[in-house]
Amino acid sequence: MASTSDIKNGLCIKYNNDIYKIIEFLHVKPGKGPAFVRTKLRSLTNGKVLDNTFSAGHKIEEVRVENHKFQFLYPEGDQFHFMNTETFEQITLNKNILDSPDLLKEGENVMVSINTETDLPLSVDMPASVILEVTYAEPGIKGNTATNATKSATVETGATVNVPLFINEGDKIKIDTTSGNYMERVKE
């Protein structure tokens, strides 16, 4: 058993007969009244996000997890196939367990959290950013760059990302996997 002082991002807990992963947390100590912890929890079974508040000192049941490095092989409908880079064992995960499946490129390495009690995969942690090639983008019109104007572009995985007007087809761009936003153009 852990308490609210042990809460951190990425911690997996049992709550309301389900397993949740803590996405965000904030320790709050108001001037009047007891301290509490405001959290955002994501269910690892259905992907729903839940806002919850724990009072200070509240006991929470922690789920033991191991993180293993897996390589993404290929998608097949709503199923995504991964291979353990150490044992070469292959697993198949449902699309809803992934944070941003549309930004996952074949051959990309991810960290998979596995429940040590049941040996079932709980979540997939993507790298902080990915570099993808733009396959389709409307041409930018000269003179439209006075403001931070953006246009929609399609990358090699099929995802649509808002990018600045100067991005063209064939450019490689860095994308933040947590928000899905454009970060920068990558020169090779």
From TrEMBL:
Chain ranges of the Elongation factor P C-terminal domain: 130-185
Pathways involved: Protein biosynthesis; polypeptide chain elongation
InterPro entries documented for this protein: Elong-fact-P_C (IPR015365), NA-bd_OB-fold (IPR012340), Rib_uL2_dom2 (IPR014722), Transl_elong_fac_P/YeiP (IPR020599), Transl_elong_KOW-like (IPR013185), Transl_elong_P/YeiP_cen (IPR001059), Transl_elong_P/YeiP_CS (IPR013852), Transl_elongation_fac_P (IPR011768)
Pfam families, A to Z: EFP, EFP_N, Elong-fact-P_C
Origin: domain of life: Bacteria
Gene Ontology molecular function, alphabetical: translation elongation factor activity
This protein's UniProt keywords: Cytoplasm, Elongation factor, Protein biosynthesis
Function: Involved in peptide bond synthesis. Stimulates efficient translation and peptide-bond synthesis on native or reconstituted 70S ribosomes in vitro. Probably functions indirectly by altering the affinity of the ribosome for aminoacyl-tRNA, thus increasing their reactivity as acceptors for peptidyl transferase.
Entry similarity comment: Belongs to the elongation factor P family.
Record-given protein name: Elongation factor P
Organism of origin: Flavobacterium limicola
